[in-house]
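testing teh design pipeline on a random one, pls ignore if ur not involved
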């Protein structure tokens, strides 16, 4: 069972991590809201990352469609010109943003749970998310990410619990920088 305070803590950490990992500049306005219906998510692909321990598996999903708006947004994050980036370059940037997002969640969970492992990014078709219910997860939440009122994308959190999960986080903390995007 996942306690309500653990669910609130997860929502807070995910929201904070999305706000810091999906923007091109600290001056960007980023609003993250909970959505109730996965049918609102229209993107075609998803970057999946997991954080696992002995007591849970947390899956994070960042949805995207590699269209003109998405390319412009992730080129800005990469501080590159759209024309200078291939589709493979865009996938690298999107996956690295997913890594930064999931890494922030991993760091916070590491303050409460020992022996965590984090996966590498996997790009899947969006339809795979329709099968999350098959995992019998203890908690699933979907988020809408609005950046500067002109770019929208989505993310999801799915927690499979193998034991009781209860923890809190300081919800008065200010957003921290997760560092610069760095591709190798």
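output:
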């Amino acid at each position: 069972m996942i306690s309500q305070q653990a669910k609130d803590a997860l929502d807070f950490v995910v929201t904070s991590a999305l706000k810091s990992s999906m923007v091109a500049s600290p001056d960007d306005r980023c609003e993250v809201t909970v959505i109730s219906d996965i049918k609102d998510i229209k993107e075609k692909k998803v970057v999946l990352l997991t954080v696992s321990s002995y007591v849970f598996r947390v899956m994070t999903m960042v949805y995207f469609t590699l269209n003109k708006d998405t390319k412009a947004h992730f080129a800005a994050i990469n501080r590159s010109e759209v024309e200078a980036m291939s589709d493979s370059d865009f996938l690298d940037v999107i996956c690295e943003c997913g890594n930064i997002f999931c890494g922030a969640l991993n760091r916070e969970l590491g303050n409460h749970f020992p022996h965590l492992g984090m996966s590498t990014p996997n790009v899947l078709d969006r339809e795979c998310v329709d099968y999350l219910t098959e995992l019998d997860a203890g908690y699933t939440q979907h988020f809408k990410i609005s950046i500067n009122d002109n770019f929208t994308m989505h993310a999801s959190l799915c927690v499979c619990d193998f034991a009781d999960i209860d923890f809190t986080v300081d919800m008065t903390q200010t957003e921290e920088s997760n560092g610069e995007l760095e591709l190798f």
